[in-house]
């Protein structure tokens, strides 16, 4: 099977549609369909920060209803899940935009959306393994020794947040180590979470979060071709939100 794996969308629905069309998908039925039978997959964080989180999530719902969803949930997905369950989460770092969209709906539609989101999230895997284990799609990454591990708590923290140190940056974001620089595993890992200006290939991994919501690009990698396909963001460029690696 051939896949088109898409980076962090963060509510940039218009760019998502442009990217799907550039990849050759038809959306006539409301479900992306490729004439060659390719499948789309996502590294998570469909929502928050951008202008159209609900429309983006609703596309994921439709894919799931049609048994076409390949999606590795991210930290923003998890936070919105906790909000949907009624937990006391801080409405900052992006979720406030999704909640504002939600609160613009009639009350009954709000309740229905939150209930649907709970069932959506609860059916998602911690990470996605494809091509007989040779391809892994995961939000923030995964260390080789965690692949296939039964330590779900440790895996969950890593795949949602990356290799965090426990320290915080001045803006409140966690300090993360560069796990990919020491990766030596056989599976090819496609991930996102840490915005970079260009898709970053290193040690049989690729980071495809090119910061669309921060004015960068929305990027997909075509597998197994390893072709990178992007569309530009319509949002203002925020250079301080991108990570540079040595």
UniProtKB/TrEMBL annotation:
For this record, the Gene Ontology CC terms, alphabetical, are: cytoplasm
Q: What enzyme class is recorded for this protein? A: hydrolase
Enzyme Commission code(s) on record: 3.6.1.17
The record's GO molecular-function terms, alphabetically, read: bis(5'-nucleosyl)-tetraphosphatase (asymmetrical) activity; phosphatase activity
Cite the Calcineurin-like phosphoesterase domain residue spans from the record: 1-196
Report which superkingdom the organism of origin falls in.
Bacteria
Q: Does the keyword Metal-binding apply?
A: no
Q: Tell me yes or no: is Hydrolase among this UniProt entry's keywords.
A: yes
Q: Which keywords describe this protein according to UniProt?
A: Hydrolase
The cross-references to NCBIfam families, in alphabetical order and at most eight, read:
PRK13625.1
The name this protein carries in UniProt is Bis(5'-nucleosyl)-tetraphosphatase prpE [asymmetrical]
């Amino acid at each position: 099977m051939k896949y088109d794996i898409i980076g962090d969308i963060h509510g940039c629905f218009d760019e998502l549609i442009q990217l799907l069309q550039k990849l050759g998908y038809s959306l006539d039925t409301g479900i992306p369909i490729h004439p060659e039978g390719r499948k789309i997959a996502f590294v998570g964080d469909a929502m928050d920060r951008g202008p159209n989180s609900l429309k983006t999530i609703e596309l994921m719902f439709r894919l799931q209803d049609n048994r076409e969803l390949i999606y590795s949930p991210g930290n923003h997905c998890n936070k919105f899940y906790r909000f949907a369950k009624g937990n006391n989460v801080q409405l900052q770092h992006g979720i406030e935009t999704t909640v504002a969209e939600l609160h613009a709906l009639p009350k009954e539609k709000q309740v229905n959306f939150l209930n649907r989101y709970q069932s959506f999230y609860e059916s998602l895997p911690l990470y996605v393994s494809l091509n007989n284990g040779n391809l892994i799609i995961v939000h923030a990454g995964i260390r080789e020794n965690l692949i296939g591990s039964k330590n779900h708590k440790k895996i969950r923290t890593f795949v949602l947040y990356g290799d965090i140190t426990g320290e915080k940056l001045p803006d409140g974001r966690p300090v993360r180590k560069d796990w990919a620089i020491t990766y030596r595993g056989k599976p090819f890992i496609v991930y996102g979470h840490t915005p970079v200006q260009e898709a970053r290939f290193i040690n049989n991994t690729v980071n495809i979060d090119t910061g669309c919501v921060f004015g960068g690009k929305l990027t997909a990698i075509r597998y197994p071709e390893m072709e990178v396909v992007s569309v530009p963001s319509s949002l203002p460029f925020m250079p301080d939100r991108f990570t540079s690696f040595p």
